[in-house]
């Protein structure tokens, strides 16, 4: 087990009706004016936004509304939010939505807290935020785990780059997680969320490091739970226990718990960022499901025992001790089959990605040959192109 630091300061408020407490919570912390940041019309149609405003008004909390976040949140909107926070003297950002809204909120909070810095420099690793406005979350989609993570990912539309970075400033002050708010999430988005939750743990599970038995068992248990809950939510969208399991798993999957003691670098996430960075019509979870099996088949020989363990402990497959590579490949196939079961794409062809874009995506992902992706197998630009080619499908 390698040295590690685990920091998860977010206050988690979980369960039915918990979103109605938001005004009281914010008043207890002493904030005076809130930016309520959200996505499209669903929070209005569902009545959730009205409930939030009622709760804030009841506690005498001033607020300003800022909606319109899209999937794969963009830098231009974050910059609008930063300007709005400064104009309105906002001292707290409330994200109402899923990972896209939360990441946009974190970017706004970084920018508002560092008025003399260009927020994009943080994402390009050219500067570090000194402070940020505190962020709170009302979660409406179990997927990204941003409600408890240190991560923030934004797309710069001017150059098509989708980049993320981790910072202690990104840990939300609190996250309100009511599984009932996810009942109306579409089948497609539920599938994308299930994939994303699994991927946050799979990327950690298949990273570098050995002798992490407790971390491994936590990861395997989370994956088995998500598979079961994902199947149930796919068929019965209003099953509270399934939705609750997915929501809690999403938070734990990306707060660093499932990778403690390992050297984590998310190769498939890096490869996918180039997909949805160049084409914002591609949902992040769908891009991950289209890439993962091809990535796994490309790298599994560099740690066959790890992939075989995954097959046995997560998918309950029998171990072929004479030919462990067969067990490893069977685990990859089982994962791919499960993604298909959720109606998720498993090839880039299904997403309409052209092979003519592979070289450009690999160049961006490798920073034009200046970086490689560390992991089970270190990936250079040629490796990235090969994985994209394998993922194209027939």
The radius of gyration is 20 Å
Helicity level: 40-55%
DSSP strand content: 5-15%
Q: Whole-number average pLDDT?
A: 95
Q: Give the overall shape, derived from the CA principal axes.
A: globular
**What is the tally of helical segments?**
15
CATH class of the largest domain: Mainly Alpha
Query: For the report, how would you describe the main beta sheet?
Result: 6 strands, parallel
Which architecture of the largest domain would the CATH scheme give at its second level? Up-down Bundle
CATH superfamily of the largest domain: Dehydroquinate synthase-like - alpha domain
Strand order of the largest sheet: 1-8-5-4-2-3
Question: CATH topology of the largest domain, what is it called?
Answer: Dehydroquinate synthase-like, alpha domain
Q: In terms of structural class, how would the helical and strand content be classed? A: alpha/beta
Query: Domains counted in the coordinates: how many?
Result: 2
**Distance between the amino and carboxyl termini:** 41 Å
User: What is the string of SSEs from the N terminus onward?
Assistant: EHEHHEHEHHEEEEHHHHHHHHH
């Amino acid at each position: 087990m390698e040295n590690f630091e685990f920091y998860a300061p977010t206050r988690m408020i979980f369960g039915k009706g918990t979103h109605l407490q938001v005004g009281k919570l914010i008043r207890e912390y002493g904030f005076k004016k809130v930016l309520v940041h959200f996505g499209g019309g669903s929070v209005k149609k569902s009545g959730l936004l009205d409930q939030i405003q009622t709760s804030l008004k009841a506690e005498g909390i001033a607020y300003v509304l800022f909606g319109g976040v899209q999937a794969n949140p963009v830098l231009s909107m974050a910059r609008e939010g930063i300007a709005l926070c400064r104009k309105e003297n906002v001292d707290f950002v409330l994200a109402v939505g899923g990972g896209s809204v939360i990441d946009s909120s974190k970017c706004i909070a970084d920018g508002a807290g560092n008025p003399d810095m260009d927020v994009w420099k943080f994402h390009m690793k050219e500067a570090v935020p000194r402070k940020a406005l505190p962020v709170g979350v009302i979660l409406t989609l179990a997927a990204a785990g941003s409600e408890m993570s240190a991560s923030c990912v934004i797309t710069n539309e001017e150059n098509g780059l989708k980049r993320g970075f981790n910072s202690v400033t990104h840990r939300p002050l609190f996250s309100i997680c009511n599984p009932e708010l996810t009942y109306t999430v579409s089948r497609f988005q539920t599938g994308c969320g299930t994939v994303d939750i699994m991927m946050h743990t799979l990327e950690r599970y298949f990273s570098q490091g050995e002798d992490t038995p407790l971390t491994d068992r936590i990861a395997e248990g989370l994956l088995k739970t998500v598979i079961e809950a994902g199947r149930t939510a796919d068929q019965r969208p209003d099953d509270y226990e399934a939705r609750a399991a997915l929501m809690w798993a999403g938070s734990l999957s990306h707060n660093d718990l499932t990778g403690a003691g390992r050297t984590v670098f998310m190769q498939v996430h890096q490869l996918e960022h180039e997909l949805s960075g160049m084409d914002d019509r591609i949902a992040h979870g769908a891009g991950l499901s289209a890439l993962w099996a091809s990535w796994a088949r490309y790298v599994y020989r560099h740690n066959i025992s790890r992939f075989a363990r995954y097959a046995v402990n997560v998918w309950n497959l029998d171990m072929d001790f004479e030919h462990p590579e067969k067990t490893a490949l069977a685990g990859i196939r089982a994962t791919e089959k499960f993604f298909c079961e959720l109606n998720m794409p498993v090839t880039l062809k299904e997403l309409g990605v052209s092979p003519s874009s592979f070289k450009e995506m690999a160049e961006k992902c490798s920073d034009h040959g200046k970086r490689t992706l560390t992991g089970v197998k270190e990936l250079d630009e040629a490796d990235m192109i090969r994985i994209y080619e394998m993922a194209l499908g027939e």
